[in-house]
Specification:
The structure holds two protein chains of two kinds.
Chain A: H1 2-28, H2 34-39, H3 47-57, H4 63-74, H5 90-125, H6 130-143, H7 147-161, H8 183-210, H9 214-238, H10 240-283, H11 286-293, H12 298-335, H13 341-350, H14 354-382, H15 384-391
Chain B: E1 18-29, E2 32-44, E3 49-53, H1 60-67, E4 75-84, E5 87-88, H2 94-100, E6 105-108, H3 112-115, H4 122-133, H5 140-153, H6 170-182, E7 188-192, H7 200-217, E8 220-225, H8 228-234, E9 237-242, E10 245-251, H9 252-257, H10 262-269, H11 309-313, E11 319-322, E12 325-327, H12 335-340
Parallel strand pairs in B: 3-8, 3-9, 6-7, 7-8
Antiparallel strand pairs in B: 1-2, 1-4, 4-5, 9-10, 10-12, 11-12
Helix pairs in contact in B: 4-6, 5-6, 6-7
The chains are: A mainly alpha, B alpha/beta.
Chain lengths: 392, 343
């Protein structure tokens, strides 16, 4: 396993270099004079001023030298400065935007994968009855929905008609006027607390899944879940750092409801349908018959045998979901005016703010690679057949 | 020592282990009702090995699955009974039936590869069955010991239990399946094509071992196969099925020596004999009937070279021919002589 992981890591670094090179050159050859157009904001600046500007940005050097400098600087954490917000460093902009996107999309990803898998599992198990048909058809409907349209419908319904949820943005400026924190501090805190909670939940349910004692399994699953949630609440209500930040974190969470709901409803259907068909296939396997013949209770056959094996293709689709998170992210962030990575990606490309665009692409590439890596490791963990071939 | 769950309160002790009486089972399909098991009657005693033979789709697996009530959801039991030590299994509640499975009747499935869930270790899958059927539950140390003993019994290295199914060869997998089938000390094992996927040498070894285990432990085994050679070696009694019906039943020796149903006769004649007199194997013409609309009268009449008007109209009942032989044919008396006249 260690060898496999190291090999994958080396591959990832190599792949990233290729990706960064291609991205850099692609954006470099974009037509248009970004300096004249954007930096000075005036296409008719005098040639001398233009020279100065070019020199200051390093754009007077030959392409390959620029490329070399970029690569060297990149791995030292210097991604250049933004043309539009000169002289703000790109890394600074990304550092501000990335947590917002991560919190939003990781929440959505975990929610819809979990919900989709559980729903698909029960659909397959109860196939043939009328409720199952209705949910499946509804799922196909959601799956084929056009995301921006759906998002606008939800905004119209929940924010305009009912007035329950905010229309857009990620916080309410009124509330944050005298805030002792920067929004990003809160985002980072939200990110870590949620991540730790999710991992702890997963670990508890996994341990419950592995143990043979039925009583212990139940204790782990329910007790573990309750304990983790209690810990989560204790952090926000019981500890000093949590209490101070609670109001602001709550405001952000409130603004997240609608985008997460939109993403979840659309992507959830896809996971649900995939799980359903994968599980229907698994249910026809001989080992399900063996499990029945062994006199195992239905719940164990469903969860331990059928769903466990049906999970494999669903995990594979997680790789694709990482990509959807990114491109769906661009649209979703635009619709909800969520100032995250997707939003700067669009604005920087449109305004030819090349350093920001390359930086944003680079980080999206890193996210995608990490996503792939996590899924690969997870897959090796879930499917013993893969584990062995990778050794050989 | 632990006590196994005995799901059945009534245990007369005198009745044969298993009595299947007039069992009728049909599948509901979109095209109509498929008559898969039609009026099948046989019994199986303690420590006895019985064979069930017939072409693919003749209903032998449906009979086997019915014994554990494992037939697919669209199966309908429309008559008859399956009595286990006097108790009708078709009347048991689902919960009781679940406790009954594996504790009393276990199964060695056809194609051992697919009988294992690929994502769990072999030992884990055996323990899982033992988890269900011991009361009070076995301690994990006890369970380890048992698994080890089972593996030794079937001739496997106990270290195999920490392997995943795909890491084992076909023969090892089949042996492990047998170990799993023995894990809860059942009284009957149903072996559905236990050796079909294996090469001949491994096949012979496994059959021999299974036979020894059966005799040592006093088990009953129901072999289901289309391989006559296998059946002849290991069974005491034999049932021949055709198109959902049991057409001949009796001691294996009687049925092999003097088959009284034309189908059994032709089935046996289609096997070339290695040691006996040289003769041309006889081909069984035609294809099995469509069970959506089975033929009238005797279901075998469209393919039977000796069919008469009576065979087309009336269904022959199971008739006792000898002390331990029954056949469902109007002309059973003439079957051996008629056979001589075949080309």
């Amino acid at each position: 396993m260690i060898r496999y992981v190291t090999r994958r890591l080396i591959q990832m670094v190599f792949l990233f270099l290729v990706f960064l090179t291609v991205t850099w050159f692609l954006l470099y050859i974009l037509p248009g004079d970004s300096v004249a157009l954007k930096y000075a904001g005036n296409p008719n600046i005098p040639p001398e001023a233009r020279e100065v500007a070019l020199e200051r940005l390093g754009l007077d050097k030959p392409v390959l030298i620029q490329f070399r400098d970029y690569m060297f600087n990149f791995f030292q954490g210097d991604l250049g400065v933004s043309f539009n917000q000169y002289p703000r460093p790109v890394i600074d902009i990304i550092g501000e935007r990335l947590p917002r996107t991560l919190v939003l999309f990781l929440t959505a990803l975990v929610t819809y994968y979990w919900a989709g898998f559980v729903a698909g599992k029960y659909l397959a198990w109860r196939r043939g009855n009328r409720g199952e048909m209705a949910v499946t058809i509804g799922g196909v409907g959601l799956y084929s929905m056009f995301l921006p349209f759906f998002a606008f419908m939800l905004i119209w319904f929940f924010s305009v008609r009912l007035g329950w949820l905010p229309i857009s943005k990620f916080l309410d400026p009124e509330q944050w006027r005298d805030a002792p924190f920067a929004a990003n501090q809160v985002f980072m805190r939200l990110f870590w607390v949620t991540l730790i909670t999710a991992i702890a939940m997963f670990a508890a349910s996994f341990a419950g899944h592995r143990t043979h004692s039925r009583v212990l399994a139940r204790i782990l699953r329910w007790g573990g879940g309750v304990l983790v949630i209690a810990g989560f609440l204790f952090y926000w209500f019981g500890t000093e750092s949590g209490q101070g930040m609670r109001v602001y974190a709550g405001d952000i969470a409130f603004h997240m409801i609608l985008p997460v709901l939109t993403l979840t409803l659309i992507a959830f259907a896809q996971v649900m349908l995939l799980t359903r068909s994968s599980m229907l296939e698994t249910l026809r396997e001989d080992y399900i018959l063996t499990a029945r013949a062994k006199g195992l209770p239905e719940g164990i056959i469903r969860d331990r045998h059928a769903a466990r094996t049906a999970l494999l293709p669903v995990v594979t689709s997680l790789v694709l979901a990482v990509a959807t998170v990114i491109d769906g992210g661009v649209v979703t962030e635009a619709v909800f005016s969520w100032p995250g990575m997707g939003e700067i990606l669009i604005s920087s490309v449109l305004s030819e703010d090349i350093p920001v665009a390359v930086g944003a692409f680079a980080f999206i590439g890193i996210l995608a690679l990490i996503g792939h890596f996590v899924v690969d490791v997870l897959y090796g963990f879930l499917d013993p057949r893969i584990r062995v071939t990778e050794h050989g | 020592m632990t006590i196994r769950k005995l799901p059945l309160e009534v245990s007369t002790g005198r009745a044969p282990l298993l009595e299947v009486d007039g069992l009728v089972m049909r599948y509901d399909t979109e095209a109509g009702e498929v008559s898969a098991v039609e009026n099948v009657t046989f019994s199986l005693g303690r420590g006895e090995a019985m064979g069930l033979v017939g072409e693919s789709g003749c209903g032998k697996t449906s009979v086997a699955l019915s014994l554990l009530r494992l037939a697919p959801d669209n199966a309908r039991y429309q008559g008859g009974s399956v009595r286990w030590e006097g108790v009708d299994l078709l009347d048991l509640s689902d919960q009781k039936m679940r406790e009954f499975r594996w504790a009393e009747i276990s199964m060695v499935f056809q194609g051992a590869m697919n009988a294992w869930n690929p994502v769990y270790r072999v030992g884990e899958q055996i323990r899982e069955a033992m988890d269900q059927h011991f009361d009070p539950p076995l301690s994990s140390g006890n369970m380890d010991q048992r698994v080890e003993r089972l593996f030794e019994l079937v001739g496997l290295d106990p270290a195999v239990q920490i392997r995943y199914p795909h890491e084992l060869s076909g023969g090892m997998r089949q042996r492990a399946v047998i170990a799993m089938a023995l894990s809860c000390e059942p009284k009957l094992i149903i072996a559905d094509e236990p050796t079909t996927a294996l090469d001949v040498i491994v096949q012979a070894q496994i059959l021999k071992e299974l036979k020894e285990i059966q005799e040592d432990l006093g088990l009953s085994i129901l072999y289901i196969s289309h391989d006559m050679a296998v059946i002849a070696q290991v069974t005491d009694t034999l049932g021949v099925m055709y198109a959902g019906k049991l057409v001949e039943f009796g001691s294996t020796r009687d049925v092999f020596d003097r088959p009284r149903h034309p189908y059994s006769y032709l089935l046996l004649s289609s096997i070339p004999s290695v040691t006996g007199p040289r003769r041309r194997p006889v081909a069984l013409e035609g294809t099995p009937p469509n069970l959506l609309a089975p033929p009238s009268g005797c279901r075998f009449h469209p393919r039977c070279p000796w069919a008469t008007e009576q065979c087309r109209k009336d269904e022959p009942p199971m008739m006792q021919i000898g002390p331990s032989q029954w056949a469902a044919c109007w002309h059973y008396e003439q079957v051996p002589e008629m056979g001589q006249q075949l080309p």
